[in-house]
Amino acid sequence: MSSDNKYYLKLNVAIEALIDRWYAWSHLVSPATAAMNIKDRHVKIMKSYVKNPKIHEAAVKRPEMRGGPFIDYGGQRVDEIEQLLETTMEKRANMLKFNEAVHELNGMLQKEAAGYSLNPLYDKVPDILKGYVELYYDLNDQANFRFFEALLYKSEYYDESTQSVSLQLIEADDDRSFVLSTPRLDDEHLLHLDVKFKDNVIDKLFKMKRIPGSYDEIKEELQIKPEQEVLFRSFFTEEPPAKYQPYTGSGIRTRYFGHACVLVETNEMSILVDPVISYDGYETEVNRYTINDLPEKIDYVLITHNHQDHVLLETLLQLRHSIKHLVVPSCGKGNLQDPSLKLMFNNIGFNNVIELDDMESITMDKCTITGLPFLGEHSDLDVRSKLCYHVKLHNSFRVMFAADSCNVQSDLYKRVHAIMGNIDVLFLGMECDGAPLTWLYGPLLSLPMERDKDHSRRLAGCDYNQGKDLVDIFHPRNVFVYAMGMEPWLEFISSIKYTDQSRPIVESNKLVDKCNSMGIDAERLFGEKTIEY
Q1: For 63-117, what is each residue's pLDDT tens digit?
Q2: Could you tell me the CA-to-CA distances from 109 to 104, 136, 337 in Å, in that order?
Q3: Which position among 21, 103, 372, 379 has the lowest Cβ density within 10 Å, counted as fewest Cβ atoms?
Q4: Average pLDDT for 251-279
Q5: Those residues with Cβ within 8 angstroms of residue 58's Cβ, 6 or more apart along the chain or in another chain
């Protein structure tokens, strides 16, 4: 490559943020949840693979097992998984001890906290947790504890040396293994780099998807080794991407990017909800918008809740340099199952985070963003880091992003409606089957859960009746079913594949048909969609 020329980063270059070579998501960044997942997810999966790789090989070939705890290396590379296991056990010994201490603390409280003062029990807190936890009773005399999570981020339990990134060209929609169960080993198509998530070299690199830069400079900043350069060079081109066309109309343009990702634009501002963006630069049967269809600066990014398909670091790190304000729901302040999104984002280089509570608003001249209560979808756990969003534009146009909120108690939204009034557009998630509690939260549990209880407490959104109740309450003119995980480029994080008989498809079809019969324009979104008002 000529040192005088400027180059663009290709639009289909992806970044995977990794921790211990596993795909990073919020529960792997936050120290307490990381300790639980390292031991009770990663170590368990790797030990199982080393012991019997053929079981894993057979399981990943079955579509219904795709999201299960099975490593997708075709029964091969056992020695490398065993080496990763040994490295993890050695390098993360402190996290394994932290995990054991959490279980010890849980057991001690269940045994010894009998409704009397907890002060004498502080001496019995495991040494490595002393100074990091507060003991408390709920109003039913049940003892529990909370972390001082900000202190954990300043401790040995937040170890940035375990962070790295990998770069690769995405050349097909479903060519990556499910991220929660398969670590990222060395591969001739992957470029692994020892780069911390907060490093601004990530911003410099991904700015080059729009603005050409010096190949030699970025190569030097990323410390590309000679043996990596052939692959690294393949990530760049002199061909400029198509230029983004800003919205110049006097109304409002809404664009669906897939899953729960929606861009709302006026000629003055832009709002992006739950960024999960596909890639450009390869043949595909499903049309989609990509990063090249986003504004160069995004005024507000809204995160609805702390699940891996709504807080996708892969997309957010690429957009970090473009985001003016990142809005997240507040959390339960130290509960193990509810780590702080604000703390997580602050520690990985996002310095523009706004935390919202229920019914709190961000008010601008011609736009108001209000956080609304988000009900259910978290397996009945005490998780507070979840919000629906009500966006009012031009002082009259109202959009509600309900995400995966499950309307199990309509009285809540009747009370919200009494304050907020009718809306024009409803975006509603209807993945009404959902995975059982242990699929996501299992590593955090202190005791095994009975199977029937586990399967009764699901990560599920609205069914037909629950969705219809929301429509009847808010009287929208348009209803869009979204956040279904249907797009083929989402399989690596959602593991979902529907048939026409799948309950979420049947229930959402029923709602769409009912709305249309009532004179409400309704559609289940897939791929891409532009709506102008």
Answers
A1: 888 889 999 999 999 999 999 999 999 999 999 999 999 999 999 999 999 999 9
A2: 9, 10, 17
A3: 103
A4: 96
A5: none
Output b/e per residue, 148-187; b: 16+ Cβ within 10 A: ebeebbeeebbbeebbbbbbbbbeebeebbbbbbbbbeee
Buried b (16+ CB within 10 A) or exposed e, 365-384: eebebbbbebbbbbbebebb
How far apart, in whole angstroms, are the C-alpha atoms of residue 430 and residue 503? Answer: 10
> What are the beta bridge partners of residue 19?
22, 163
Alpha-helical (H) ranges within 115-225 are 149-153, 201-207, 215-221
Beta strands in 22-62 (DSSP E): 22-23
Length of the chain: 533
CB neighbour list of residue 53: distance below 8 Å, 6 or more residues apart: 71, 73, 75, 76, 78
User: Amino acid identity of 49?
Assistant: Y
Distance CA 201, CA 191 (A): 15
Structure tokens at 191: 């470029």
Alpha-carbon span 429 to 397, nearest angstrom: 21
- Residue 303: Cβ-neighbour burial (10 angstroms; 0-12, 13-18, 19+): buried
Neighbours of 1 (CB within 10 A): 13
Average pLDDT estimate for 208-233: 97
Q: Which two tokens stand for residue 45?
A: 């999966």
Q: Cα–Cα distance between 258 and 493 in angstroms, integer?
A: 13
Distance CA 383, CA 336 (A): 9
Q: Which tokens is 377 given? A: 């979808």
